[in-house]
Amino acid sequence: MKPIKIKRRQIIFASLILSFGAAVGIKYWFSYGEDKLANKDVLTSGNLGEAVYVNSSNVDQNSAISGIDVSKSEEIDTFFKETRLSRKDARDKLVEIASKDNDSDHLKEITKTIQQENNIENIVKIKVKSIVDCIAIIGKDGCNLIVHSKIKLPKEDIIKIKDAIKGQTNMNNNEIKIVEKN
Prior knowledge:
The protein is α+β, with helices and mostly antiparallel strands. It has one domain (9-180): Stage III sporulation protein AH-like (Helix Hairpins). 58% of the residues lie in helices and 12% in strands. It has helices at residues 8-31, 40-44, 61-66, 70-100, 104-127, 155-169; strands at residues 131-139, 142-149, 176-180. Strands 1-2-3 form a three-stranded mixed β-sheet, with helices on both faces. The relative contact order is 0.10.
């Protein structure tokens, strides 16, 4: 019986698939626990990448008395969670298609994009203290960053954000769009 020869390319491809699967699993574990996915009808309806806006009339009695609108904060939190889930589902489908076609170059590109988006989100949250949450979406036309901040972003913070995106993607200012979600 001849020994099986494993090529370097096969080892790299297998390790990329395993590391990508582990990253997706860890992200799912920390971001989308079972308790957060209880209402799957809302999360699975619609088109891939479509933003879902939630209008909630449920306002906590204590906040209504104090004048703080909790529903707005919950609406924004829901928006970010649903957008992340939608982005994850779209990426999973792309990975599935690329895996079926044995397109390792496309898998590498998807993995690189996911890593860049995660890095951008983490770096922006660290560099800009006023940002509560953000989502980076990298496409062929550039990078869109949706941010939720405590205040309107000053020019200094926008420069920090663009520097973080440029550092991860090598894009120019024309390819970077920052959208404030308040």
